[in-house]
Design goal:
Gyrase A, domain 2, about 375 residues, about 20% strand, alpha/beta, Phosphodiest/P_Trfase, 2 domains, seven-stranded mixed β-sheet, four-stranded antiparallel β-sheet, single chain, Alkaline phosphatase family protein, globular, Alkaline Phosphatase, subunit A
């Protein structure tokens, strides 16, 4: 098996320093209710109430490039910190890191789709599966639960349909859930929940990510949606009393993937050889191999993709710290081989994921545009 090429153009996750898993411990310390974990590199100003507003898909580089569309959020960059998503840079992994305070290898949501150990099934971590118990899949006490137990009111403000979902239970259990569906009621709910002291109120908006997937981050549609999000964030700040802190974060960024940079496994029989199941997503693939096939799969995928992707065995990826320390129960969820795309490349699997052909914006890999996230304090 040829050695992996040196990693170029990748941003390593800042676990224990400025990653999404460090946000709630930093907020807890700022509230005067530390969670008893080692201090992180993220230091926040003290306050009696914090509102954490997560904007799905707003990478730090995207915000830097769109100052005109997001003047309020852009104005916060100068006095704030840039953090990183975990690996893969995808919503289910990131939201779980935020809510649990754990690295992906600890909480176990290591991809958009991952193999259910002992089966030939994939768990879609956003849609979930009724046969998979989210508490068994992610058994650790969440940071939200621990903070709530310490005397801080913790609230999750999100769409009504997400209340009780598998991802919500895995990532955010232990918090009070407030169901909302419109921007106006969302802001009102945040103001009401954050009135308790001390408190942490988490609020989520997924519309920018949806727009990026559908239209691409270079589109006028995405820029208009960013302008709306910017107005929402500023309106939220104006509605909050001055003694409550607003922390705006993201779960990942996004890159546009042109048709010419798409490789479809269905079009190349060599890429399917030795692969029993394909998971992950187009920018970060988990390959689950038949017995003894890993060396051949690695060699074939490296030769075919070349500089368009980093192809590593599970052990190599873990050795590079991509998932942080990995719990033994999580090991079989990670592909025998993982494929992280560089530049604007993507590996489609239209047989298993036909909807991917309709996406323009994608994420999941370790480029700066996907990994770097704003940590904006106002």
């Amino acid at each position: 098996m040829p050695d992996p090429a040196p990693v170029t153009g990748f941003c390593e996750p800042a676990y224990g320093d400025r990653s999404l898993g460090d946000v709630v411990p930093a907020v807890a310390a700022a509230l005067g209710h530390p969670l008893g974990v080692a201090p992180t590199g993220l230091e926040l100003p003290g306050a009696s109430s914090y509102v954490v507003f997560l904007i799905d898909g707003l990478g730090a580089n995207l915000l830097r490039r769109h100052e005109e569309a997001a003047p309020y959020l852009y104005s916060l960059l100068a006095g704030s910190t840039i953090g990183t998503a975990g690996v893969p840079s995808t919503t289910s992994t990131s939201l779980t890191s935020l809510g649990t305070g754990l690295v992906p290898g600890g909480h176990g949501l290591v991809g958009f789709t991952t193999r259910v150990p002992g089966t030939d099934d994939l768990l879609n971590a956003l849609l979930w599966d009724a046969d998979v118990d989210p508490v068994e899949w992610q058994p650790h006490t969440t940071a939200f639960s621990r903070l709530q137990a310490s005397g801080v009111r913790v609230s999750v403000v999100n769409k009504r349909e997400f209340n009780g979902s598998g991802l919500t239970v895995a990532a955010h259990r232990g918090a009070d859930y407030v169901g909302v569906d419109r921007v106006g009621e969302r802001i009102a709910a945040v103001v009401a929940a954050s009135a308790d002291s001390p408190s942490l109120t988490y609020v989520y908006d997924g519309d920018l990510d949806w727009t990026g997937h559908r239209w691409g981050v270079a589109s006028s549609h995405w820029e208009q949606q960013l302008a709306m999000i910017d107005h929402e964030a500023e309106q939220l700040r104006d509605a909050l009393p001055s003694d409550r802190r607003l922390l705006v974060v993201a779960d990942h960024g996004m890159v546009d993937v042109p048709v010419t940079d798409r490789i479809d496994v269905a079009d190349d029989g060599d890429l399917s050889a030795g692969v029993a199941l394909i998971g992950g997503e187009a920018r970060f693939r988990h390959l689950y191999c038949v017995g003894g096939a890993v060396p051949d799969v690695v060699a074939t995928w490296r030769a075919t993709l070349g500089e368009r992707a980093e192809v590593l065995t599970r052990g190599e990826a873990i050795g590079r710290g991509w998932f942080g320390p990995v719990d033994p129960s999580v090991l079989p969820r990670i592909g025998d081989v993982v494929v992280a795309c560089r530049g604007s490349a993507a590996v489609l699997s239209t047989d298993g994921f036909p909807y991917e052909t309709k996406l323009i914006g994608m994420h999941g890999s370790l480029t700066d545009d996907e990994m770097l996230i704003p940590l904006l304090v106002d």
